[in-house]
């Protein structure tokens, strides 16, 4: 397990290094000069040059890359071109919205998918199974922003149970914070829960067809206990894979829902930074998200080992 | 009163009749052997007793265990019967255990379910049950996982689970079919001893007449869902009444007529072949190797049929792959018709086309989306100018006719054929390029006895007609005995004995060969033919 960890950590560092180069190069080729953008079209050339020097935009690409990476390693993410505040502070603020939102949505997704998937699999071919499959089909097909707007109309405007947008802030208390994240989390969770339900169902059905389930039944295990004691854990590997993918997606991909609900999350931060050529913010956030995705995959690999003894010690 | 009394059992799945009027009985301390080919309903009879039938199955008749009709019991009571009154052992030990639970937990589960013991007490019982199944705790701690055990050891865990609550009835469904001969003999001995010591009844299901003949007090022969004949073993073996029983017995002891004559010319020459596999190494430890094939030398003459026998893991498959040029060699050389097979990554198609191979699994060795004509023409990629048009059609027709299929079959898909027919297609695929050497890697091991007899007959016939040379790899000694001229016995990567097949079988020189031959189940003298 120790060697496995070291190798995975080395892989993680290499992946981050490669990702940072790719991100940097991509933004190098994006047209538009942040300094020109900040000063407007009528800026005088000498003012522009002065600002470019101040922002560190006049060095060579290689030098700017190492300045950026060096700063990151010291915890200094640089200063936002647009807002003139430290990027690290901005990211931390936004993380306090995005991370709870992603966890909330993932929690909902798992809380819906596990019971629904198990229920459908244990009643294969029944009306319950068909119902679950139908609803999840719909859940996968309906765009989440449209569903979000419907929820705003019903729960925020008509029933007034939840705010229609914005974030109350955690200073207002845990409840207020969760309340403003509830509708976005549901909107994000719906398609994810639908996918996860279907994965859970088919994985469990595969497992229930295995020989060892028959062996368990032959020693007197009831159908129900066969599912819970023998089927479920064996069915978890594909489910864990999907959960890992979903968490990465929820962290980075909530941009549309954040816009619909006017939430100050990471997605909106990147969106705004791109439109204002605030490249240093874009670079930092994207690298952070890459890190998050790799870290989640790492956690999922560790979880495989916990679930399956055959995967321990190997690799 | 009998322990188990099956009376007029009919079973259908989705209205399709599977069992017809099956009546059997079994007393305590008795072994009832059920014989039949795949699809004859022998396993389904066992699952009807366990009430573990597939969805859509319905039963009529009665299955009485100690006088109580199991078919009338509600599911909850059936759960109390399974494992406590009836224990079951399955064919596939590799997949019969939950891979995520320790063997101790899995055996203890039977006891905990039925006797409501604490975890600690249940583990004590599991320890005892595993010891009875000859897996003592000193060598096999209860905290082992199934993947840390061999097939035979896993089958012992399954047996321990079945006997943990000392059931009155044991059902063993092809318990040794997936195992090597020596392991098979050990497991059969274990089952025999359990019946004697615990006085339970054993229903032993097998397609192998020899296995059942050596174990059973009484035999029932099944075909197409019906019991065609049953009675005391000696009587059944002496005077089989039903034509199907006779056919089965004839097929079991079948030795095809062979007209092939080996020439003096050497076709394949292996000289000091060594194949090492690197073992996973520690961070600072020196690299370690596992020697799968250890200095193997032998030759095959043109027109000869050479057998290669040995247990799983002895290096048979690695050697086969090396001959096919699929494994790089660490030492030695392999030549076909005097030309070396370069096994370092690339094999010259001009040399490779002299050989073809037929594998064991007739279900897994075809791409299910290709038609027969495309499947059997695959070896033509070894040719610089593969035949096209009429020449290709003729090659396909010849190959299909040679193996006893019709030309019209070329447009069908593999799933439209039975297992035996698929193996014929595999042979057609091997024949189409007219190779000199055909490697038959357990080519008949997955087939029923009567189909096996047909395929063996076909192979003998083809060899005589086309002058083929066979390397016949098998763990089944009776098959090797019936179709080969010479035999090699392989153990732990080395050839331990080599000689004329008849001479080796009659008077084995190496103790390992003697052990293999002794372990192989045989029909009693005077039976067969």
Topology:
The complex is a heterodimer of chains A (315) and B (529).
Chain A (H helix, E strand, L loop, with lengths): L1 H28 L4 H6 L5 H11 L5 H13 L13 H36 L4 H15 L2 H15 L15 H35 L2 H8 L4 H30 L2 H6 L5 H10 L3 H29 L8
Helix pairs in contact in A: 1-13, 5-6, 5-8, 5-10, 6-8, 7-8, 8-10, 9-10, 10-13, 12-13
Chain B lengths: L3 E10 L2 E11 L4 E5 L6 H9 L6 E9 L2 E2 L5 H7 L4 E4 L13 H13 L3 H14 L18 H13 L5 E5 L7 H18 L2 E6 L2 H7 L2 E6 L2 E7 H6 L4 H10 L13 E13 L10 E13 L3 E5 L6 H8 L7 E6 L2 E2 L8 H4 L2 E4 L13 H5 L12 H14 L16 H13 L5 E5 L7 H18 L2 E6 L2 H7 L2 E6 L2 E7 H6 L4 H9 L10
Parallel strand pairs in B: 3-8, 3-9, 6-7, 7-8, 13-18, 13-19, 16-17, 17-18
Antiparallel strand pairs in B: 1-2, 1-4, 4-5, 9-10, 11-12, 11-14, 14-15, 19-20
Helix pairs in contact in B: 3-4, 3-5, 4-5, 9-15, 13-14
């Amino acid at each position: 397990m120790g060697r496995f960890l070291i190798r995975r950590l080395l892989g993680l560092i290499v992946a981050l290094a490669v990702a940072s180069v790719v991100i940097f190069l991509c933004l190098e080729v994006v047209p538009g000069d942040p300094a020109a953008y900040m000063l407007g079209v009528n800026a005088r050339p000498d003012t522009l040059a002065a600002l470019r020097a101040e922002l560190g935009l006049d060095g060579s690409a290689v030098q700017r890359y190492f300045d950026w990476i060096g700063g990151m390693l010291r915890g200094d993410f640089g200063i936002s071109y647009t807002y003139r505040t430290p990027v690290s502070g901005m990211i931390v603020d936004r993380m306090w919205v995005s991370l709870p939102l992603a966890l909330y949505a993932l929690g909902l997704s798992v809380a819906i998918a596990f019971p629904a998937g198990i229920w459908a699999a244990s009643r294969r071919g029944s009306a319950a199974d068909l119902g679950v499959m139908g609803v999840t089909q719909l859940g996968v097909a309906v765009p989440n922003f449209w569903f979000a707007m419907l929820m705003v109309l019903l729960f925020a405007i008509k029933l007034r149970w939840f705010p229609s947008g914005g974030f109350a802030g955690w200073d207002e208390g845990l409840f207020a914070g969760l309340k403003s994240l509830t509708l976005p989390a549901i909107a994000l969770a719906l398609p994810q829960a639908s996918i996860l339900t279907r994965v859970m169902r088919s994985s469990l059905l595969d497992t229930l067809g295995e020989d060892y389930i028959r062996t368990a039944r032959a020693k007197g295990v009831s159908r129900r206990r066969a599912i819970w004691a023998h089927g479920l854990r064996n069915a978890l590997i594909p489910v864990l894979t999907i959960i890992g993918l979903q968490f990465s997606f929820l962290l980075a991909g909530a941009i549309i829902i954040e816009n619909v609900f006017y939430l100050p999350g990471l997605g909106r931060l990147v969106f705004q930074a791109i439109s204002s050529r605030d490249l240093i913010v874009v670079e930092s956030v994207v690298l952070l998200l890459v890190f998050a995705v790799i870290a989640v995959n790492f956690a999922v690999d560790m979880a495989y080992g916990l679930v399956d003894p055959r995967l321990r010690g190997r690799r | 009163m009998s322990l188990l009394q099956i009376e007029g059992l009919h079973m259908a799945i989705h209205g399709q009749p599977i069992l017809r009027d099956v009546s059997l009985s079994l007393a305590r301390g008795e072994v009832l052997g059920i014989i039949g080919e795949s699809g004859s309903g022998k396993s389904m009879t066992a699952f009807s007793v366990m009430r573990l039938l597939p969805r859509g199955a319905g039963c009529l008749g009665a299955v009485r265990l100690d006088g109580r009709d199991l078919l009338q019991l509600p599911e909850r009571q059936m759960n109390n019967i399974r494992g406590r009154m009836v224990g079951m052992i399955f064919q596939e030990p590799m997949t019969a255990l939950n891979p995520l639970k320790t063997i101790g937990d899995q055996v203890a589960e039977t006891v905990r379910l039925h006797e409501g013991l604490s975890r600690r007490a249940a583990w004590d019982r599991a320890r005892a049950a595993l010891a009875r199944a000859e897996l003592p705790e000193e060598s096999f701690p209860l905290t082992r996982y199934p993947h840390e055990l061999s097939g035979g050891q896993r089958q012992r865990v399954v047996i321990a689970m079945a006997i943990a609550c000392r059931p009155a009835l044991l059902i063993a469904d092809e318990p040794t079919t997936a195992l090597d001969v020596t392991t098979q003999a050990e497991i059969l001995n274990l089952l025999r001893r359990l019946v004697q010591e615990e006085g339970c009844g054993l229903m032993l299901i097998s397609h192998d007449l020899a296995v059942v003949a050596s174990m059973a007090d009484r035999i029932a022969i099944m075909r197409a869902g019906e019991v065609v004949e049953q009675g005391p073993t000696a009587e059944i073996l002496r005077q089989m009444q039903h034509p199907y029983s006779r056919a089965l017995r004839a097929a079991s002891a079948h030795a095809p007529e062979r007209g092939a004559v080996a020439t003096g010319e050497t076709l394949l020459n292996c000289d000091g072949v060594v194949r090492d596999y690197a073992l996973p190494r520690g961070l600072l430890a020196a690299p370690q190797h596992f020697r799968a094939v250890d200095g193997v030398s032998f030759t095959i003459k043109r027109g000869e049929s050479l057998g290669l026998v040995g247990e799983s893991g002895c290096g048979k498959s690695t050697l086969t792959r090396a001959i096919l040029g699929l494994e790089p060699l660490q030492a030695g050389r392999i030549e076909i018709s005097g030309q070396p097979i370069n096994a370092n990554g690339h094999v010259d198609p001009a040399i490779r086309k002299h050989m073809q191979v037929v594998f064991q699994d007739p279900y897994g060795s075809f791409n299910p989306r290709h038609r027969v004509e495309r499947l059997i023409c695959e070896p033509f990629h070894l040719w610089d100018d593969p035949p096209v048009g009429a020449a290709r059609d003729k090659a396909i027709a010849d190959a299909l006719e040679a193996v006893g299929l019709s030309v019209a079959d070329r447009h069908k898909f593999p799933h439209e054929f039975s297992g035996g027919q698929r193996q014929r297609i595999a042979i057609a695929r091997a024949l189409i390029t007219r190779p000199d050497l055909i490697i038959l890697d357990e080519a008949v091991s997955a087939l029923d006895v009567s189909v096996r007899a047909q395929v063996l007959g076909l192979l003998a016939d083809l060899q005589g007609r086309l002058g083929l040379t066979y390397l016949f790899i098998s763990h089944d000694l009776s098959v090797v005995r019936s179709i080969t001229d010479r035999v090699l016995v392989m153990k732990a990567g080395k050839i331990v004995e080599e000689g004329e097949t008849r001479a080796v079988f009659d008077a084995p020189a190496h103790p390992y060969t003697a052990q293999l031959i002794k372990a192989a189940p045989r029909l009693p003298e005077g039976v067969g033919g």
